[in-house]
Write a structure and sequence with these properties.
By secondary structure, the chain is an alpha/beta fold. It is built from eleven helices and eleven strands. The protein has two domains: about 80 residues, Leucine Dehydrogenase, chain A, domain 1 (Rossmann fold), CATH 3.40.50; about 130 residues, NAD(P)-binding Rossmann-like Domain (Rossmann fold), CATH 3.40.50.720. Helix 1 runs parallel beside helix 10, helix 2 packs across helix 10 and helix 6 crosses helix 7.
Length: about 300
Amino acid sequence: MAIIIDGKKIANDLCKKLSQKINILKVEHNIFPCLKVILVGSNPASQVYVRNKQKKAESVGINSETVVFSDNLSEDELIEKISELNKERFVHGILVQLPLPNHISASRVINTVSVEKDVDGFHDENVGRLVKGERNCLIPCTPKGSLDLIKLVESNLSGKNAVVIGRSNIVGKPMFHLLLQENCTVTILHSQSKDLAEYCSKADIVVAAVGKPNFVQKNWIKEGAIVIDVGINSVNIGGKPKLVGDVDFDGVKEKVKAITPVPGGVGPMTIAFLMINTVIAACLQGKVDAYDFVSSGL
């Protein structure tokens, strides 16, 4: 019987431990972690994501504020606001909710955020540090959370054959590098790849982040594999909307060692690791050994 990885419970446990760390940070180091979230426009999905992030931040003891702008905000105005937040010493993390309106360059905006305050881990410098395997960087939250789930099932990944489906800058590419740093042999597949089923059938670990509902089929997966489903897709079943992942969960779960459900798998871990990144950022700026402080006991 497959382990159904309860990302919601694992994320909640992480956040409880993180909350204790935050209390220590406040009492012993006089550092009060602060996260500023910028939302441009009225995208309903973005509003939900931002609301969830705000609630979680408040629950763990992170000061958090969401700054909302209208769709017609200019790119230069947004850059100016981020530059102001970069200078505020009591703001430790800055998150710009994506997607942005079409007239704003996401790349320019992301790279305006201070490297040390880039809690999404999207800044070019943080990406470069991740690729080089450096320790002092902020890593994108979804792949970071996904790796944590994998390692809870299998602590030593050295020599494992891993497949990542999807090559986005947010999930696929950083996931590739994180698995590589765990000494996995990693293959990254995408929309132009051929023989996807053949590659997947040899994988000990499959991370699906392609954005296609029920894309990964039972006959693609080998017995005993670990499957991490990053996809969140809304489909219509019986006239009602339902959230499903990129993996045919009901079929695949019969074969695997462990699998994440959708919802309740990777999603909560993404928010938990956003909180962890905010605390790491606060430590970096407060000259506290971020990684030893945050990782010990989590």
